[in-house]
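USER:
Before I trust my own judgement here, I would like a peer's view. Write it directly below this note and I will take it from there.

ASSISTANT:
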Amino acid sequence: ADFAQRYHLTSREAEVAKQLLMGHSYSRVMQELCIAEGTVNYHARNIYAKAGVHSRQELLELFESEQ
């Protein structure tokens, strides 16, 4: 929750970020959250932009550095 608030993620972006940080593939995120692949891509791009990163690995490293 702190991470999501710090980077001003919407509730849905926070849900997607949580799934990505757990190592889930986009396909798995689609299934878990019942959303389309394009929607996962859209949220992921927004998450990366808000956090100032360019990849899932950078997002993970940022998250871990702040814990």
User: Anything to note?
Assistant: The helical segments are 2-6, 11-21, 26-33, 37-51, 56-65. The mean pLDDT is 95. The radius of gyration is 11 Å. Residues 37-51 form the longest helix (15 residues).
